[in-house]
């Protein structure tokens, strides 16, 4: 299989990371979770007491604490500097602050540079909000995943229950709607479908069906 780049974008809890991991694994490609990078910086900002509006100080944290991924049997561990933050970056405090932090142009500039370096030699499945539009506009395959807010809140609710994170369905639904709004209305590279992306509505679809739909898109494109 040619080492192409595959961009998977979409709103919160649309199933991007689950299917991106499976596709990367099946193809022997590298999976890159760009949301985890924005979450890691948000975690650091909260931990070090940076104001969430202090763009310069937050951008400086990116140079100070390199973000790295270590593959493991199921998925990957995330590190900032030497600290393992895989679970910590999924906590509600981080989730509720990440849209504000990721809207800072200086933060995006640094993280986008790192994401482009990761994909420079191809063979990457990258998920996020702006991969097809800003990070990898030349990606050979671009997918935009959507699902109803009800279904996304339901998925996040189940995920949180499994992880022992205590939140109600209604609060989760409201948080997802709020994050969708902020991510789609920020000035720099907002969440938006690329003109050449294939849109897949995953409402009512199983993970297997979504993976099959993406592979079908690849085949149609000649990959
Ligand atoms: O995919 P996720 O829910 O883990 O992403 C967390 C946040 O990071 C999301 O609400 C917006 C931001 N993000 C972004 O701005 N650009 C990306 N490429 C990925 C995530």
Automatic annotation (TrEMBL):
Locations listed in the record: Cytoplasm
**Catalytic activity annotated for this protein?**
CMP + ATP = CDP + ADP; dCMP + ATP = dCDP + ADP
Q: Which controlled-vocabulary keywords does the entry list?
A: ATP-binding, Cytoplasm, Kinase, Nucleotide-binding, Transferase
Binding annotation for ATP: 10-18
Q: Which GO terms describe its molecular function?
A: ATP binding; CMP kinase activity; dCMP kinase activity
Q: What processes in GO biological process is this protein linked to?
A: nucleobase-containing small molecule interconversion; pyrimidine nucleotide metabolic process
**Pfam short name (any one):** Cytidylate_kin
- What residue stretches are annotated with the Cytidylate kinase domain? 6-218
Gene Ontology cellular component annotations, sorted alphabetically: cytosol
E.C. number, please?
A: 2.7.4.25
Q: What is its main location?
A: cytoplasm
The family line of this record is: Belongs to the cytidylate kinase family. Type 1 subfamily.
Protein's name in the database: Cytidylate kinase
Source organism per UniProt: Candidatus Enterococcus testudinis
